[in-house]
Amino acid sequence: MALKYAYYPGCASKEITKESDRSTRKLAKALGIKLHDMPKATCCGAGLLTDYDKQLTLAINARIFAQAEEMGMDILTICSTCLMVMNTVNHELRNTPGQLERTNKLLAKAGLHYSGKVEIKQLLWVLNDDYGLKKLKEKVVNPLTRLKVAPFYGCHSLRPSDALGFDDPEKPVSLENTIRAIGAEPVDYSGKTKCCGFQIDLVNEDLAVDMTGKRLLDAKGETFVSRIDDINIKGADCMVTPCPLCHVNLDSYQEIAEKRLSRKIVLPVFHLSQLVGLAIGLKEKDLGLTRNMVSPESIL
């Protein structure tokens, strides 16, 4: 049976990083994964609404879960912030006594009910577990041999670990395993689980750009520290991230980081769906690579 999911791309992937949504849809179709849109779903609150009205945050997310439950599917999202918010809410609804009951009283006004059974997954998780990397490897027609790829997880793919729980927040392996499955070499570096700076772009842009530049230079090997003996230690040719918001900083802010640091970086940054798509033979136009600010032409 084909894998199927209630598809929740998130606000950013619908507008700011449309290429991540486009490439995910193309990749899913090529792999035989069925994505079903959720036209009535709203924004998850992006982690900001909780500071103003926690119960409303629980309710609007439970409303999304209830829709997926009616569809008989788990949710697949490509936004790590949505992943974090939704899983944090789901964890609270399941584990805080009385919380699910209180939330369902609000949902009842909209004729909805949530039982707590829906799982919220990221594309990276689906490829590793539900689809399987062995099966993915069999789909590779253009192995990315000799390409050194820096994995960048982003904060919200890993933390809070009690709500997410898919990978070790300190020593994750899912992105490296995916990189190997498509024939490339993962590069280990100290910044792969750290913040890209996106969360403070509007608060302190200078600091955010410094953080972005440091992550990129770490990946290139200029401040490189190897932690695992069997992983390449010569620096990356490109970077890949499962998070569209991290992609915004690492790709779109890269030129600003170069100016601030007075040094060239020129490190192409791929969405996970783009890099995997290349390996299984999807065309550049289908993956939206012309929207990437740092040209991936040298990689292609």
User: Any idea of the CATH class of the largest domain?
Assistant: Alpha Beta
Mean pLDDT, rounded to whole units? 93
Largest sheet: 4 strands, parallel
**Span between termini:** 34 Å
Indicate the overall shape: globular
Tally of discrete structural domains: 2
How much of the sequence is in beta strands? 5-15%
Order of SSEs: EHHEHEHHEHEHEHEHHEH
What ranges have pLDDT less than 50 throughout 5 or more consecutive residues? 224-233
Per DSSP E runs of 2 or more residues, the count of β-strands stands at 8
Radius of gyration: 19 Å
Number of helices: 11
* Adjacency order of strands in the biggest sheet: 2-1-3-4
What's the helical proportion of residues?
A: 40-55%
CATH topology tier name of the largest domain: Rossmann fold
Q: What's the architecture of the largest domain in CATH terms?
A: 3-Layer(aba) Sandwich
Assign the structural class, choosing from mainly alpha, mainly beta, alpha/beta, alpha+beta, or little secondary structure: alpha/beta
Tell me what the structure shows.
The chain has 300 residues and is of the alpha/beta class. It folds into two domains: 4-121, Glutathione S-transferase Yfyf (Class Pi), Chain A, domain 2; 141-291, 3-Layer(aba) Sandwich (Rossmann fold), CATH 3.40.50. A four-stranded parallel beta sheet has the order 2-1-3-4, with helices on both faces. The radius of gyration is 19 Å and the shape is globular. It has eleven helices and eight strands. Strand 5, helix 7 and strand 6 (185-186) form a beta-alpha-beta unit.
